[in-house]
Amino acid sequence: NAGVTQTPKFQVLKTGQSMTLQCAQDMNHNSMYWYRQDPGMGLRLIYYSASEGTTDKGEVPNGYNVSRLNKREFSLRLESAAPSQTSVYFCASSEALDRVQRAFFGQGTRLTVV
Amino acid sequence: QKEVEQDPGPLSVPEGAIVSLNCTYSNSAFQYFMWYRQYSRKGPELLMYTYSSGNKEDGRFTAQVDKSSKYISLFIRDSQPSDSATYLCAMRGGFKTIFGAGTRLFVKA
Protein backbone atom coordinates (compact mmCIF):
# COMPACT_ATOMS: atom_id res chain seq x y z
CA ASN A 1 0.00 0.00 0.00
CA ALA A 2 1.34 3.40 -0.99
CA GLY A 3 -0.51 5.34 1.73
CA VAL A 4 0.23 9.06 1.26
CA THR A 5 2.45 9.96 -1.68
CA GLN A 6 4.06 13.37 -2.11
CA THR A 7 5.82 14.79 -5.15
CA PRO A 8 8.42 16.09 -5.59
CA LYS A 9 10.70 14.90 -2.78
CA PHE A 10 13.14 17.78 -3.21
CA GLN A 11 12.91 21.20 -4.83
CA VAL A 12 15.02 24.33 -5.04
CA LEU A 13 13.25 27.54 -6.03
CA LYS A 14 14.39 31.06 -6.61
CA THR A 15 12.65 33.83 -4.70
CA GLY A 16 9.50 34.81 -6.54
CA GLN A 17 9.05 31.54 -8.40
CA SER A 18 5.89 29.51 -8.02
CA MET A 19 5.35 25.80 -7.62
CA THR A 20 2.76 23.23 -6.63
CA LEU A 21 3.36 20.38 -4.20
CA GLN A 22 1.27 17.34 -4.98
CA CYS A 23 -0.23 14.87 -2.51
CA ALA A 24 -2.32 11.77 -3.10
CA GLN A 25 -3.68 9.17 -0.70
CA ASP A 26 -5.10 5.74 -1.49
CA MET A 27 -6.79 5.00 1.86
CA ASN A 28 -10.17 6.51 0.95
CA HIS A 29 -9.72 9.11 3.66
CA ASN A 30 -12.00 12.11 3.80
CA SER A 31 -9.67 14.61 5.47
CA MET A 32 -6.29 15.82 4.28
CA TYR A 33 -3.74 18.24 5.69
CA TRP A 34 -0.63 20.19 4.79
CA TYR A 35 2.01 20.83 7.47
CA ARG A 36 5.41 22.44 7.49
CA GLN A 37 8.25 21.33 9.75
CA ASP A 38 11.04 23.71 10.73
CA PRO A 39 14.03 23.05 13.02
CA GLY A 40 13.17 23.50 16.69
CA MET A 41 9.47 23.82 15.97
CA GLY A 42 6.67 21.32 15.89
CA LEU A 43 4.71 20.54 12.78
CA ARG A 44 2.49 23.51 11.96
CA LEU A 45 -0.74 23.21 10.04
CA ILE A 46 -0.90 25.29 6.87
CA TYR A 47 -4.26 24.25 5.40
CA TYR A 48 -6.62 21.36 5.73
CA SER A 49 -9.55 19.85 3.89
CA ALA A 50 -12.19 18.22 6.03
CA SER A 51 -13.79 16.55 3.01
CA GLU A 52 -13.83 16.76 -0.77
CA GLY A 53 -14.87 20.25 -1.85
CA THR A 54 -13.86 22.04 1.36
CA THR A 55 -10.64 23.71 2.46
CA ASP A 56 -9.79 25.81 5.52
CA LYS A 57 -6.86 27.78 6.82
CA GLY A 58 -4.67 26.36 9.51
CA GLU A 59 -2.14 28.05 11.77
CA VAL A 60 0.24 29.44 9.09
CA PRO A 61 -1.64 29.91 5.77
CA ASN A 62 -0.04 33.13 4.52
CA GLY A 63 1.74 32.73 1.19
CA TYR A 64 0.03 29.44 0.35
CA ASN A 65 -3.05 28.23 -1.49
CA VAL A 66 -4.54 24.76 -1.71
CA SER A 67 -6.82 22.76 -3.97
CA ARG A 68 -8.70 19.61 -3.05
CA LEU A 69 -8.81 18.21 -6.56
CA ASN A 70 -10.84 15.13 -5.65
CA LYS A 71 -11.08 12.78 -2.70
CA ARG A 72 -7.57 11.41 -3.29
CA GLU A 73 -5.58 14.54 -4.11
CA PHE A 74 -4.74 17.71 -2.19
CA SER A 75 -2.22 20.16 -3.62
CA LEU A 76 -0.35 23.05 -2.03
CA ARG A 77 0.71 26.03 -4.13
CA LEU A 78 3.31 28.67 -3.45
CA GLU A 79 2.50 31.60 -5.72
CA SER A 80 5.62 33.66 -5.05
CA ALA A 81 8.18 31.74 -3.03
CA ALA A 82 10.10 33.49 -0.24
CA PRO A 83 13.17 32.31 1.70
CA SER A 84 10.94 32.06 4.81
CA GLN A 85 9.12 29.22 3.06
CA THR A 86 12.23 27.05 3.10
CA SER A 87 10.99 24.05 5.05
CA VAL A 88 10.00 20.42 4.90
CA TYR A 89 6.37 20.03 3.87
CA PHE A 90 4.27 17.06 4.89
CA CYS A 91 0.91 16.00 3.62
CA ALA A 92 -1.28 13.84 5.86
CA SER A 93 -4.68 12.22 5.73
CA SER A 94 -7.19 10.77 8.17
CA GLU A 95 -10.59 9.08 7.97
CA ALA A 96 -12.26 12.26 9.20
CA LEU A 97 -11.40 15.54 10.86
CA ASP A 98 -12.17 14.05 14.27
CA ARG A 99 -9.84 11.12 13.53
CA VAL A 100 -6.76 13.31 13.05
CA GLN A 101 -5.16 11.49 15.99
CA ARG A 102 -4.80 8.54 13.58
CA ALA A 103 -3.40 10.53 10.67
CA PHE A 104 -0.96 9.04 8.17
CA PHE A 105 1.86 11.18 6.82
CA GLY A 106 3.67 11.27 3.52
CA GLN A 107 7.46 11.21 3.18
CA GLY A 108 7.78 14.95 2.84
CA THR A 109 8.98 17.51 0.31
CA ARG A 110 12.19 19.35 1.15
CA LEU A 111 11.90 22.84 -0.29
CA THR A 112 14.71 25.38 -0.40
CA VAL A 113 14.03 28.93 -1.56
CA VAL A 114 17.16 30.90 -2.47
CA GLN B 1 5.20 30.03 26.14
CA LYS B 2 4.58 27.16 23.74
CA GLU B 3 1.44 25.10 24.27
CA VAL B 4 3.51 21.92 24.06
CA GLU B 5 7.08 21.68 25.35
CA GLN B 6 9.42 18.84 24.44
CA ASP B 7 13.12 18.56 25.24
CA PRO B 8 14.96 18.37 21.89
CA GLY B 9 17.77 16.17 23.25
CA PRO B 10 19.71 14.47 21.87
CA LEU B 11 19.22 11.57 24.23
CA SER B 12 21.84 8.84 23.92
CA VAL B 13 21.35 5.47 25.62
CA PRO B 14 22.96 2.01 25.37
CA GLU B 15 21.10 -0.82 23.73
CA GLY B 16 18.70 -2.52 26.13
CA ALA B 17 18.09 0.57 28.26
CA ILE B 18 14.66 1.84 29.23
CA VAL B 19 14.01 5.18 27.55
CA SER B 20 11.70 7.84 28.92
CA LEU B 21 10.50 10.62 26.62
CA ASN B 22 8.32 13.41 27.93
CA CYS B 23 6.18 16.37 26.98
CA THR B 24 4.43 19.02 29.02
CA TYR B 25 1.48 21.10 27.90
CA SER B 26 -0.53 24.05 29.05
CA ASN B 27 -3.93 23.63 27.40
CA SER B 28 -6.29 21.62 29.59
CA ALA B 29 -8.65 21.15 26.60
CA PHE B 30 -6.37 18.52 25.04
CA GLN B 31 -8.02 15.10 25.10
CA TYR B 32 -6.01 12.96 22.66
CA PHE B 33 -2.30 12.44 23.18
CA MET B 34 -0.19 10.98 20.37
CA TRP B 35 3.37 9.82 19.89
CA TYR B 36 5.02 9.72 16.47
CA ARG B 37 8.37 8.30 15.43
CA GLN B 38 10.23 10.06 12.64
CA TYR B 39 13.30 8.55 11.05
CA SER B 40 15.77 10.88 9.38
CA ARG B 41 14.36 12.35 6.14
CA LYS B 42 11.09 10.45 6.52
CA GLY B 43 7.56 11.36 7.48
CA PRO B 44 6.18 10.96 11.02
CA GLU B 45 4.74 7.53 11.76
CA LEU B 46 2.06 7.15 14.43
CA LEU B 47 3.24 4.89 17.27
CA MET B 48 0.23 5.12 19.54
CA TYR B 49 -2.35 7.46 20.96
CA THR B 50 -4.31 7.63 24.17
CA TYR B 51 -7.55 9.30 25.08
CA SER B 52 -7.68 11.26 28.31
CA SER B 53 -5.62 9.95 31.24
CA GLY B 54 -4.04 6.60 31.90
CA ASN B 55 -1.60 4.18 30.36
CA LYS B 56 -1.54 2.34 27.07
CA GLU B 57 0.90 -0.41 26.17
CA ASP B 58 1.90 -1.73 22.76
CA GLY B 59 4.78 -4.18 22.72
CA ARG B 60 7.88 -2.42 24.03
CA PHE B 61 6.15 0.96 24.07
CA THR B 62 4.07 2.41 26.91
CA ALA B 63 2.33 5.78 26.75
CA GLN B 64 1.34 7.50 29.95
CA VAL B 65 -0.83 10.58 30.45
CA ASP B 66 -1.14 12.58 33.65
CA LYS B 67 -3.73 15.27 32.98
CA SER B 68 -3.52 16.66 36.51
CA SER B 69 0.15 17.51 35.92
CA LYS B 70 -0.27 18.20 32.17
CA TYR B 71 2.52 15.74 31.50
CA ILE B 72 2.78 12.84 29.06
CA SER B 73 5.46 10.19 28.70
CA LEU B 74 6.54 7.49 26.28
CA PHE B 75 8.58 4.61 27.67
CA ILE B 76 10.57 2.30 25.42
CA ARG B 77 11.69 -0.96 27.01
CA ASP B 78 14.67 -2.96 25.78
CA SER B 79 15.66 -0.18 23.41
CA GLN B 80 17.21 -1.18 20.09
CA PRO B 81 19.46 0.69 17.63
CA SER B 82 16.47 0.65 15.27
CA ASP B 83 14.64 2.87 17.79
CA SER B 84 17.08 5.69 16.96
CA ALA B 85 14.83 8.41 15.60
CA THR B 86 13.11 11.63 16.55
CA TYR B 87 10.00 11.18 18.68
CA LEU B 88 7.24 13.75 18.38
CA CYS B 89 4.46 14.17 20.86
CA ALA B 90 1.18 15.70 19.70
CA MET B 91 -2.02 16.67 21.42
CA ARG B 92 -5.50 17.27 20.16
CA GLY B 93 -8.39 19.21 21.64
CA GLY B 94 -11.47 19.60 19.43
CA PHE B 95 -10.11 20.09 15.92
CA LYS B 96 -6.87 21.65 17.12
CA THR B 97 -3.70 19.53 17.10
CA ILE B 98 -0.39 20.83 18.41
CA PHE B 99 2.93 19.03 17.89
CA GLY B 100 6.00 19.12 20.04
CA ALA B 101 9.32 19.90 18.36
CA GLY B 102 10.57 16.35 18.89
CA THR B 103 13.29 14.59 20.91
CA ARG B 104 16.19 12.98 19.06
CA LEU B 105 17.04 9.56 20.45
CA PHE B 106 20.20 7.58 19.75
CA VAL B 107 20.43 3.97 20.89
CA LYS B 108 24.02 2.73 20.81
CA ALA B 109 24.76 -0.90 20.00
Could you characterize what this model shows?
The complex is a heterodimer of chains A (114) and B (109). Chain A is built from no helices and 11 strands. Chain A has strands at residues 4-7, 10-13, 19-25, 31-37, 44-49, 56-57, 64-68, 74-78, 87-94, 104-105, 109-113. In chain A, the strands form 2 sheets. In chain A, strands 2, 4, 5, 6, 9, 10 and 11 form a 7-stranded mixed sheet that branches. In chain A, a hairpin with a 6-residue loop joins strand 5 (44-49) and strand 6. The N and C termini of chain A lie far apart (35 Å). In chain B, a hairpin with a 2-residue loop joins strand 9 (85-93) and strand 10. The chains are: A mainly beta (114), B mainly beta (109). Chains A and B meet through strand 10 of A and strand 4, strand 5, strand 9 and strand 10 of B.
Biggest sheet of chain B, open or closed, and with what strands and sense?
A: 6 strands, mixed
Number of helices of chain A: 0
Rg over C-alpha atoms of chain A, rounded to the nearest angstrom: 13 Å
The number of helical segments of chain B is: 0
> In angstroms, what separates the terminal alpha carbons of chain B?
37 Å
Stretches of chain B where pLDDT falls below 50 for ≥5 residues? none
The pLDDT mean of chain B sits at 95
Quaternary structure: heterodimer
Q: Approximately how much helix is present in the residues of chain B?
A: under 10%
Global shape of chain B = globular
Largest interface: A-B, 20 and 23 residues
Question: What is the distance, rounded to the nearest whole angstrom, between the alpha carbons of the first and last residues of chain A?
Answer: 35 Å
**Rg over C-alpha atoms of chain B, rounded to the nearest angstrom:** 13 Å
The proportion of residues in beta strands of chain B is: over 45%
Structural class of chain B: mainly beta
Strand content of the residues of chain A, in percent? over 45%
Write down the secondary-structure element order of chain A. EEEEEEEEEEE
- Let me know the average pLDDT of chain A: 95
Helix content of chain A: under 10%
